[in-house]
Amino acid sequence: MAADTQTGSGDEESGRHQGEVELQCALCMKWFTADTFSIDTATCLPFMTNYVFHCNVCHHSGNTYFLRKQANLKEMCLTALANLTWRSRTQEEHPKTMFSKDKDIIPFIDKYWECMTTRQRPGKLTWPNNIVKAMSKERDVFLVKEHPDPGSKDPEEDYPKFGLLDQDLGNIGPSYDNQKQTTAAPTPGGLNGGLAPGPGKGRGAKRKQQQQQQEGATAGAAKRTRSDPLFSAQRLPPHGYPLEHPFNKDGYRYILAEPDPHAPDPEKLELDCWAGKPIPGDLYRACLYERVLLALHDRAPQLKISDDRLTVTGEKGYSMVRASHGVRKGSWYFEVSIDEMPPDTAARLGWSQPLGNLQAPLGYDKFSYSWRSKKGTRFHQSVGKHYSSGYGQGDTLGFFVELPDGTETAKALPDTYKDKALIKFKSYLYFEEKDYVDKAEKSLKTVTPSRMLFYKNGVNQGQAYENLFEGLYFPAISLYRGCTVSVNFGPHFKHPPKDIKYQPMSDMGWGAVIEHTLADMLYHVETDVDGRRSPPWEG
Fold first, then answer.
1. CA 85 to centroid of chain Cα atoms
2. Per the record, where are the segments of Low complexity compositional bias (predicted)?
3. Tens digit of pLDDT for each residue in 384-403?
């Protein structure tokens, strides 16, 4: 359903196009017409405020993110009056600012209900009385006129009439949570979707704006008794992962989730309707960062990771960290430089599958293969064999893996995790996956051709392993005590191998995004055809 055709007007100074469906980015706060990004606006209205939008420049995926949210009556009345005001200005010789409840406002809301909110129409027609209460109560937003002026020719039945206190329609916009903290506080009268802030002007405006920022941040913190994980999931730190997060341990793994823009019913993302119920995993997807880095969650907690997620320092006994991305087929390479290695420390470096034990040295179990600094020993299943001379501080090591294309693992798309339970931790949502280590160990089988080669300062040390177990392999580092190493996933290496063909691990960043997107889309297509799957935790 679309609104009646209204003539749009562009404001060259502000870049606004009033009368058209416009969207304000929650991060950069810029305004865009909806057709700029080819967003389907069939169920949208000009001056709507009940949405969250991120432009493709600000959203970490590089795509636009748009979600309509459930509007309350106050927001619906604001949108209705804004559209009626604009229509009157552009189509009538004598524009009006006040509109009849029965002749204008109620018919407009009734006609465009589905465009104004994701809520179903109430069964009982009580909402017309409720909108009068809503507007009468909000005197900082709405003007109310209950009776005609004495001597006026207006019929009594046209009253009560309502209008907007602020007649500048350019001030209407969504009131985002972070707006209170990163920009000037909203103009009084702003609502969840209300009056958008404008830049301060005049003497003392900067000081006043700073004061409003502090007050707005305090008020915002006090009001947010229930945070919205949908929005929080978009406000990731620069390195792409929450600072506080659950660790993979005790037989469970945690995958950061974000709203799936390809989900067939994005309106279901609103958490109100899922209060006390498990949130359907098919509305979310694994949140992937486009750069390959050391994983913050897939590591032993005692390891210290640098801010850029490329350097790690050990603590006490052997413990391990994996990279954020893994490979299932092809030939791949990465480097590790030994920054500090005091005499009583050591490192085991190499490759690990997801189930490799994080609280043990790399090469401890069937899921990992390593090369130790001390004596150059190689380890797999806790069995050490002589491989090369050792390595130490100042050395740069290279790690190559070759996996065949014809295996089941190689042909499969990555797991979507949509059948897993979603848990909330520090305002973010995570898929929770149970580890079945014993079952996985029993099902392991070797594949050919497959091999690992290790390099020391550009020199091939020979074949370390062949006939590897089939699976998904991640670059992995395990450290003993206070050893510090830095990893280079490419594409530019200090000692690029010249005797093999390979892809740098950095290529797996966008490669994983593509694979996961394809898997998510296929899931939705299959679900649309076969019906919604019931996750095991739903019984």
1. 37
2. 210-222
3. 999 999 999 999 999 999 99
What is d(CA 229, CA 279) in angstroms, rounded to the nearest whole number?
A: 12
Q: Is residue 287 within 8 Å of residue 233, measured between CB atoms?
A: yes
Q: State the SS3 of 388-406.
A: CCCCCCCCEEEEEEEECCC
The Cα 70–Cα 68 span in angstroms is 7
Question: Is 348 exposed, middle or buried (CB count within 10 Å of its CB: 0-12, 13-18, 19+)?
Answer: buried
Which residue's entry shows tokens 């279901």? 268
Three-state SS letters, 110-142? HHCHHHHCCCCCCCCCCHHHHHHHHHHHCCCCE
**What are residue 331's phi and psi, to 5 degrees?**
-115, 125
CATH 2.60.120.920 domain residues, the chain: 252-516
Chain Cα centroid distance, residue 257 = 7
| Range(s) within the chain of domains with CATH label 3.90.980.20 | 9-169
Q: Write out pLDDT tens, residues 26-69.
A: 888 888 887 777 777 667 888 888 888 888 888 776 778 887 77
> What is the distance between the alpha carbons of residues 462 and 459, in angstroms, rounded to a whole number?
9
Angle of the 127-137 helix axis to the 73-91 helix axis, nearest 10: 80
CB-CB neighbours of 196 under 10 Å: 21
> Residues, the chain, total?
539
Give the Cα separation of 190 and 172 in Å (integer). 8
d(CA 47, CA 83): 7
DSSP classification of residue 186: P
pLDDT at position 18 is 81
pLDDT in tens, 46-55: 888 888 888 8
Instruction: Work out the number of other CB atoms within 10 angstroms of the CB of residue 166.
Output: 17
Q: What is the DSSP string of 436-448?
A: -HHHHHHT--B-S
Mean pLDDT of the chain: 80
Phi, psi of 514 (to 5 degrees): -65, -45
Cα separation, 329 vs 413, in Å, equals 12
pLDDT for 136 equals 82
Fold of 252-516: Jelly Rolls (2.60.120)
CA distance 259 to 284: 4
pLDDT along the chain (539 residues), means of 10: 38 64 87 79 82 82 77 87 91 87 88 81 74 81 81 76 86 65 34 40 42 42 38 51 85 89 63 60 85 93 92 94 96 97 96 95 96 96 96 97 93 90 86 91 94 97 96 97 95 95 95 91 77 44
Are 458 and 333 in contact, with CB atoms under 8 Å apart?
no
**Nearest residue to 44 via CA among 15, 81, 83:** 83
What would be the CATH architecture of the domain defined by 9-169?
Alpha-Beta Complex (3.90)
Alpha-carbon distance 51 to 536, whole Å? 32
